[in-house]
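Researcher: Please generate the 3D structure of the following complex. Treat every line as part of one assembly.
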Amino acid sequence: MTTDIYLVGVGGQGIITASGIIGDAALFAGKKVLLSETHGMAQRGGSVVCTARIGDFHSPLIPNGRADVILSFELLETLRGLCAASKRTTVIASTERIVPLSVSAQKLRYPTLDEVKIAVERTAGEFHSVDAPALARQAGVPMSSNIVMVGALFGTGLSGIDESSFRKAIGANVPRKAEENAKAFSMGAEAVRKRRAS
Amino acid sequence: MKSPSCLRQTHDSDSSKRYFHHGSNHSGNMDRVLDAPPGSTVLLLGNEAIARGALEAGVAVATTYPGTPASEIGDALARIAKAAGIYFEYSTNEMVATEMAIGASTSGVRSLVSMKHVGVNVAADALLTFAYTGTRGGFVLITADDPSCHSSQNEQDNRYYALLGSIPLLEPSSPQECYEMTKEGFALSEKLELPVIVRTTTRVSHVRGPVKVGKIVQGQKKSEFVKDPKRFVTVPAVAKTRHLVLLQQLGKAEMLADESPMNFVLKVGGGSKEGVITSSAAFNYVMDASSELGLSLDVLKLGFSSPLPRNKVAEFLRGHEAVLIVEELEPVLETEVRAVAQHNSIRTRILGKEDKLLPRAHEFDQAIVGSALSKAFGAKSKKSEPARAAPEDLPARPPVLCTGCPHSATYFAVNKATGRNAIFASDIGCYTLGVSPPYNTADLLVCMGSSVGTAGGLAKVNSQPVVAFIGDSTFYHAGIPALVNAVHNGHKFLLMILDNRTTAMTGHQPHPGSSSGPTCCDITAVELEGLVRGCGVKWLRVVDPYDIKTTTETVKEALRQEGVSVIIARRECALIAKRDKEGAILKKHFIDQEACHKCKTCVDRFQCPAISSANKVQTIDDALCAGCGVCAQVCPWKAIKEVK
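Model: Done. Output below.
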């Protein structure tokens, strides 16, 4: 089994850390994994893409339309990430909004959650929205929206990675506030599970 | 499928000895680059794998100038140099970094120097003649190329440096190979007494993947230099004979390349009369695309690609009816492979960029390579998903200057002082982002340090005032000779040194103006003012860019001067200030809507990610506000106030 995960968001949201956790977790679970990361200038508040390919691949880049999961850390970036989507793609979107300067400068409109949902349902498959910042605050680690999103990925059951590998990977990558981050992970997982059940 | 790893170390997914720690080395945490136990498999960035490979080769001196996509090699080594017992430094520029490593290597000590592709242009003067003297201790130069210009001003193909300099070159495709080839590079360098180049690309350096590591060894750290001027002092008579030695060694290198396990044939899907010759990241796309298309192919994967293993290539060509060359950027292999065929009268059909099957610009992906394979070998390409472009009306999100960035304040003040009636020579760093509205403070940019040099030429032939912008790290790197030139030849322009006390763009590495930073040894700050005065500059002012009024007035005064005037706009990078507790003395601001005249100066002429405008109302996002207070000075109606 292979899983292609396409992570999108804005520079500074902890996306490289999230993909690193997914990579370590896959390795702990005995799987082959490759990640690609965005470094450098793009990180200055620009759109950022990371990829995680779990399985027997040589390149970490995910071909167009081939993502199994799009893990979006920012609402607008979800739409940009749809280039990786097909009907079999599950989209998990954080409802966090970071309004780009172009919205006021060029009089563009920032999309609503409903508009994002409609666009996702038109091109992709399942859609889950997660209020990651709120859950991170509840867990006592406001900076750990990215851990909530990793939890949400686990909650879909699509990663093929077991829970203990994920938890071990979080401990290895985010050694501070271990208990709170573990909680943030659980809350992210629970948020998606609840939706799937309903 | 066989592992493509050149030394056949497979990714042992069942290994129980897994190493799993976080990359940073703060508060006594273990570091995965340094502390991963021998035999364990650990997830490493390509660049981290290079650092580990160097440690296992017993490197003793490592130098760099940071640049994406190479920066994490130096960052990893800076972090662990002390614990690893090696000497590491961030050098002033790539040439100095290379010369440092040459000094160590010619003394018999293994040395590593890393840089981005355009850095090699700076280092080339040293590197190309070092190939003549040759090495004693192993010398490996890492060049990280950037096809598609993800974070670079060009996408030059540095494999040409191997051809230009008669220098052996290795091309890893994965983190595992980054590790292995760096390690092997040192052995090769000593065997041949030549420098060795290891060339990565963004999609190799910035890939994180499993790496099975070995044992770190302590190499020779100290030496006694053995004099041999007939080898090491390249006066013309010596250079002339050393070139012959170099060519002789290059011949030996080719024999080693012919036998090297880094160059191997993989039979995909049972093998066939059709073949592919490939290297670097392109190999990965060949493997993934041929597996997807269900192709049967023989793949000659070149890891030790220069000098070209001509016997191995000729043998491969003879065994196949048609061979497609798959390489990113320039047709380096393709040209050489065609020459091998011609020389050996081999009639195999050779396909590649000459046949327009593959592009010469920008990086590849699986779809590009899959389509070329299908066209070359008549396979039916699988119906792939159409490339889905993002909806056109999506608000763009280009990188921008951060909240509280001192460069924003400087650019606002310069625009105010010049009325935008000036030519702006820009340079390499975060501040290049001034090219975008609302500042538009970049009119010309070619390379590191070019703002100062081009400003002279611009001023000589234009009637408008000329303002050059250069960052502190970039000024130390390449601005000084150009400033000396401007003073000496009497050019008239204003040079603004945007001094944010760090090399911000590449991850906040120290530079010669820093007195502390992650490194193995004590560093001394070389003061900017003294340096500028030492270049002969008579008119120098230092301003705090957060003080808009003073900065604006100072710029006006500077432009009235004859000759070169220099302003140092000094304020710590906002990202560092935010981490620093003293940053907390800054005050958050809000827009008093009753006082606001909706003139939009704060968004049309100034740019801050915390200030937005919706439904004709401008607001400051309190969570994002860095508290710099510059917007309060920007507002002509004094409607932006401190939060009490």
